[in-house]
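Run: sequence + NAP -> complex structure.
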Amino acid sequence: MSYKHIALPEGGEKITIIDGQLSVPENPILGFVEGDGIGPDITNACLRVWDAAVEKAYGGKRKIHWAELYMGEKAAEIYDGDYFPEETRQALTDILVSIKGPLTTPVGGGFRSLNVSLRQELDLYACVRPVRYYAGVPSPLREPELVDVVIFRENTEDVYAGIEYQSGSDEMRKVERFLKDEMGAKFFDDAGIGIKPISPFATKRLVRKAIRYAIDNNRESVTLVHKGNIMKFTEGAFRNWGYELAREEFGDQTITEEELYSTYGGKRPEDKVVIKDRIADIIFQLMLLRPREFDVIATMNLNGDYLSDAIAAEVGGVGIAPGANIADHLAVFEATHGTAPKYANLDKVNPGSLLFSGVMMLEYIGWKEAADLITVAYPIVVQRKVVTYDFARQMEGATEVPTSGFADAIIDQIHSGVDLQAARQQRSQAIEQERKEREARRVSEPFAEMEASGRTPLTVGDIMTRVPITIGSDVNVDQAMQVMREHGVSSILVEPGDDGEWGIMTQRDIVARIVHANRATDSVQVGEIASKPLVTVPTDMSLYDCSARMLESNIRRVVATKDVDPIGIVSDTDIFRVVDEFGWIPE
Ligand code: NAP
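>> structure
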């Protein structure tokens, strides 16, 4: 289509979609929105860096043809007060891949945030925020280099869906009456009411994107973050639909964390992505203490909003954190900070957020070499302490440069030589080494590792006491009790005697079959008083089913078996401890 004010650059070709995949020509047209406030300063600086990286990486064989699109104040000037013109909407859709600077939300007159409008009108349902550390950037963490995570935040639902009723309004009264009178809900009068819709459709398309990303980028795991222990039918359902999607659509390429432990003994098969889940409040703590456990995170709108800024702050990066809003193919990359109006046109601020959003964009179109040139050049410059004001005030002996000067320093670094090969190798070796160390811990101390990594135990395999204590059936009860005392256990497995059956002796057997039967402990063999046959359960049985088995059989502990051999014991005390520590999410 032809546009009134937008000029598509000559010599550029549009990106298309062929067989569900982006098809990127060597001379693609990409859109950019300059943005308000500091937008022009950072956009001009970044355009120069991106072009320099592409030129260096491909020696002129590839070139981006930029099309300027208009939103915000610049659009209002050109389109007679319209901050988000229809033809910009159309061009974003036609061009498919664009990047934007920050936009002012006009105050008054009932304006919605332009960013919210953009996401909603183009149905950009996934907000993608990669957070990793770049050497030299000031950070409050002791080991910020352990943070390397990509957050997929659902963009269209949750309490952000805009279904809200103001306290005292007619609408609120209507909803209040319905909830109280018809649904029996109890809450204080005059409460403002917000609705939290979470659907299988929106959950699954978000989780699908996160898993696809993890597979394509050799990531180890996808973590579903939720508060399902409290909000069962929204956040709990998100978790359940996430697992369902992984099973149904990526069954050959994924395993659950439960399978990682119970089927694979803690060793992740190289070609499988592990799907796990964590409670939202625990993830904040874990991202500080054990950030390496998390690779790709998929979560709902509100959790994702908090989490992406909190994690970015860990690596000193709210000012340099990149982001993108993505639909099935259509993508708008963006600086995640605002317009910082007090710094507008001062050529002062840090272009990092937009710069790395552009790196994401280059990766998105498959131009990895150009992206990596920037990623590798950046920390070299920052480690030389050539930085903008925001970093300079946190560093001893820094050389403060303007926005444009920082871009120049990156471009110089790209030109003067960046050893991509060495940098990539170093990074992948560090990741590999760290993965191996964690795997070794999962194999040798699975329960401790699970607890430390915040896994909510769900199955028999997760909570059983491994390598249960066993004793020969011909040993006398006195000796057996001594072994139990030494190991601090309340039951002991009894090896098969002449009958070929495993048994279990518990404290209750002493009450019933020694004291109540009035027998001496040193004259009775454990095989005589052990309970047989064992009530056994498989390691992948859910705790719900396990509890049912214990209640049906009227026993306090069951034995977990693999093939026919006993390999662990689960007691009602173990189940109590799980519920006490982690809460209980109904199945
Ligand atoms: P802001 O523009 O992000 O600025 C807050 C502070 O963050 C700045 O004063 C500055 O801190 C620091 N900062 C932001 N960008 C920086 C950069 N590139 N380099 C260095 N420091 C940077 O937030 P705001 O003042 O709340 O919002 C201003 C306007 O932006 C509002 O109209 C808001 O609606 C809009 N906004 C737009 C977006 C978006 O388009 N995506 C996002 C958020 C807000 P110091 O003062 O400490 O130097």
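>> summary
The two ends are 51 Å apart (CA to CA). The mean pLDDT is 92.
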